[in-house]
């Protein structure tokens, strides 16, 4: 029995040894050749997508600022969905945290209670992610994307002149600059000029449609503006700390208790000094900071030299069922709008030991874009959001900011915020 079943294997081995004899090579050097070929393949394929990007957008390379927002969006999507999805998402979370360094903004956030109450902090984070995905991954010009942006505007506008123009612009700057900083420092390759500018150009279009005035003309100017704003407006307050703590608590919720102190130090080590102080975090132990930096560095080397690129772009947008309601497949902290299936249940058990599971409490019946955001405004916002989305689409089809000047204002519902 044993003899028979093992003989084909034996034959293979004998054949292989015969081959190495013919080639006059020992087996280990064949393995060596295999490894070298694989590493060479990684080198060739790693940069294939970038070479293609350079070729496709060659006309813009000498002056990336000549990109229109639609072309910019194609380039940016490639970064978010194919080149560096994980780090872009991570950097965006940090952008959100860094908006809490602005003392005048966190006062309002604490008043609304959405952020600091344990029962709403998860929904707010997931809704923010869903809304951003609708117009960053989807498009500001699509029905879904323009509704998502209109809903965001509607929510901001509720707070009237309590939200100031410079605060809006600083938040926009964080969402542009922070992911770029993350990618440059920690990703397997830095972004090229055209990729960075594409991110800026697309976000600028979003800023226009949020009614943000005087957005600086280049990435460099935006960076200078943000640094100047931060000199005056970024300093420690109790409210900053409360906002940061609530969000950090959410990030670390599923980390085992014994590791939580370590994980918090590790997370804090990812801030620059100025932000860390403004959020009231103590300096993490130097060995933890070094460990985190090394881990990112090792990840960078492994991906750069050993990993083949991914095969497809990711597809994180929620998908409609036959009724038109949208359902998510993936979630970060709480399974909002995830259909309750055996698979999603098991995932919930796996990630949270059953603490949060898809179900009616997390709207397992899906969502419509205009419903996103605090539950209490679901009905009252529906009509104005639909109207503003239509106006926004009309604005875009007439040529948008280029033809009509910027920023965009919803005619029927002029933003009172941002005085
Ligand atoms: C793509 O173009 C940029 C200049 O914009 C250059 O720095 C980079 O090396 C090019 N990359 C490849 C792989 O062609």
TrEMBL record:
Stretches assigned to the ER-bound oxygenase mpaB/mpaB'/Rubber oxygenase catalytic domain: 120-284
List residues traversing the bilayer.
25-45
Name the Gene Ontology molecular function terms of this record: oxidoreductase activity
Q: Which UniProt keywords apply?
A: Membrane, Transmembrane, Transmembrane helix
Matching entries from InterPro entries are given as: MPAB, MPAB/Lcp_cat_dom
A Pfam family per the record: MPAB_Lcp_cat
From which domain of life does this come? Eukaryota
Transmembrane keyword on record:
yes
PANTHER family linked = ER-BOUND OXYGENASE MPAB_MPAB'_RUBBER OXYGENASE CATALYTIC DOMAIN-CONTAINING PROTEIN (PTHR36124:SF1), PTHR36124
The entry's protein name is ER-bound oxygenase mpaB/mpaB'/Rubber oxygenase catalytic domain-containing protein
Q: Organism, per UniProt?
A: Hyaloscypha variabilis (strain UAMH 11265 / GT02V1 / F) (Meliniomyces variabilis)
The upper taxonomy is: Eukaryota, Fungi, Dikarya, Ascomycota, Pezizomycotina
